[in-house]
Structures are given as C-alpha cells and as structure tokens.
Amino acid sequence: MNHHRIVFTALLLLTLFHTSHLHAQADLDVRRHLERTDNIRFTEDNHIELLTTGHDKFERMFDDIRKARSSIHLEYFNFRNDSIARCLFSLLAEKVDQGVKVRAVFDGFGNDSNNQPLQKQHLESLRSQGIDIYEFRPLRFPWLNYMFERDHRKIVVIDGQIAYTGGMNVADYYINGTEQVGEWHDMHCRLTGSVVEELQQIFCLTWQQVCGEEIDPETARPRNDTGADPAATYHQSAADDYPRTIGIINRHPRRTGSVVRSFYTAAIDAARDSIYIINPYFTLTPSVKRALKRALRRGVKLRFMASEKSDIPITPDAALYNAHWLMRHGAEVWIYRPGFHHTKVIMVDGRLCTVGSANLDARSLRFDYEDNAVICDTATTHQLEQIFCRDTLQSFRLTQQSWRQWRTPWQRFRGWFANLLAPVL
Predict the structure, then answer these.
(1) Alpha helix ranges (H) inside 282-350
(2) Nearest to 102 by CA among 190, 268, 5, 220
(3) How far apart are CA 78 and CA 116, in angstroms?
(4) What is the mean pLDDT of residues 16-44?
C-alpha cells in the first residue's frame, strides 16, 4: 500500500513538474520567437501599472504630466474635441510656460472620423500656446487611398522616463460612456524602465516622418545635476511591485508589417493550458484563425469575450460570426452586455499577456501602425484573467440555443456577409 502511495506521489509530482515546464517553455518560446524573428528587445527592469478605467488613466497621466520637467510626447489616433481634451491641452500649455517641450501627433483619419474632431482653428490656437501639434497623413481628395496605413497607436512619453500605452484615445466617453453603447471599457498601462526607450523611439520616428524634425533623445530627458538615479524619481513602487520582463511590438506597415500577426500566432501556438482573449473587432485573419483552431484541437482551454454593443456598424457582425465559429469548435464564449468592451488583451497559460492598440482585425494586423506591450509575468497575467472572470458576471455564455434566440436570421446572415468583407475591415 505504501509502495503504491509512493509511486502515485512520484507520478503526481512528475506531472506537475512537466506541466510547469511546458508552461515555462511556452512563455520562453514566444519571447525567443519575437527576439529571433522580429528583433523585439525584451528588458527585465520594467514596472507596470494596469489602468482599467478612463478615470484611472487620465488621473494618473495628468498627475505625471504636472510633474514633467523636460518633455511630453503624445501620439494618438484621435483627440476628441471635448472636455477631457480641453483639460489636457490646458495642462500642456501650462507646462510649455514652464519650459517643457510638448510635441503631439494625431491621425488624420482618426480625427475626421470622430464626431467631435479638432478643427483648423483649434490647431492654430494650440500652436499659438507653444504646443507643437501635427496631423499624421491628413485626408486629401481623392481620399480613398488614405483609408489604410493609419496611425492607430496610443503613446505618451514623459521626460523619457514614463510611458503610457494601450487602447484608450483622448475622449470623455472613456469616463462617461455614450448613449449609444453605455459604459465604455478599455485598458491602458503606465510603464517605467528600459521599455520606455522603445516607446520613445517609436514616437521620434513618427515625429520625423510627420514633420521632418529629428529629436535627440538626450534633450527629451531632464538634466541630472544631483547624481541620483533619474528613473527613481518617476517610479513609485507598490508593496508587491517587482521588475517585469516586457517587450514592445511596433507595427510599421513598411518595415515590420507582420509583427503583430507573428506575436499572436506564436502566442496561441505556444499555449498548452489556457488562452483568454478580449477583443472588440474580432474579424480575424486566416493565420490567426488557423492558430486558434490548432489550439482547440490540442485541448487548450480557450475563453473569449465579445461585446453585445459596438460603436461602429458591419465589423461587430463579423466579430460575432467568428465568436459563434469559436463556440462551435469548443471555445467558451461570453457576450458582454452592460456596455462596450473596447479592451484588446490576450493571456496565455497564466504567464504571458499583452496590452496595446492592436485589434484582431485586418486593419490592425495588415494595414495600420500599432504598438503592444508584451508582458512576461504571472502576476500581471493573473490580474487580467481576474478582470475577464469578473466581467463574465455581467455577460451571458454563448451556446447554440442562445445564439438562435439572441441573433435573428437577418442578423446571422448579416454576420456571414460581413465575414466575407473581413480582409478589409
């Protein structure tokens, strides 16, 4: 009897060790793939703070901007001309008066496609206050060819020491929601450490592309006359904080066009236990769809969350069509009901996750400029998994029966037809 117990215990420990090894190996495989194939640089001295509401993001970012001493760089898909943008620009003008250099870029299509765009007179007013603000690829007639290769990134770098990135633009609805969809949920993160250099470099390249000026990174940092570690001024450590391994994937259409697809397929193929995905525009590309099918065939537990409501037409129909496809192939699919989940995250095996601007659609994976932080850390991944599990309490699980009760024949046909347009959505 004792002999059997010893054998059983040994087999159990061996299984646990083997499973842990597989997960660790999967985590390492993704990092090695990105480093070898896509030249992504991972650094291990970084700190991250997840910001899960618009209130948290803007409060934290505004506080850091108030403390800026040398430079503030902002790159957004759009600044919606509303109260939060006015508060931001007022604060930036104050920093200019204090001698801080402020540079900002926004996308031309992103600006023109929102319902409260910045107008010419607004830009002239901002420039008169010393804020250097430029439009990335302004729309010009005939403008159809300008629909693609848009700058969809959301990057803020302060003094070359603090960075913000994620899925949120500058708009009131991240705090107040909208009448159309209700509450607007999204994800952002605050970063310190060597990873900030990567985001600063992305901004500098965009700035040079837009206005021809080359920025010296040293002039973007405050002078250090005390001899102290400058990064210590910017990092505010929490009790359970410790350095994280983080890399930035930067999609530049003409240079690193496949990097986001490369990450997603590598991460999905590396999964041995679980994959969690929240994504608003889940139209997919063939390579990502094949990777998801392979994961389900391996027995990986795949959990996906989509929103019942959306801010745009057509694309959500294709996303729900793909959510139904996942459910039929064995995935656990949840439909979020209270508002719009604009969050774009994936969590793999409890060890690897990403937060950024890229959607799982053709625009992000094939056309636009994007950036994502890839985080190799169990605590951060677990935090995102907890958010997923919390939000299932306000969602319903998709089944074949609920699908037919929820989606009318016309809506199901519309989803099928929208899926045919997925290569350009």
Answers:
(1) 286-297, 315-328
(2) 220
(3) 10
(4) 75
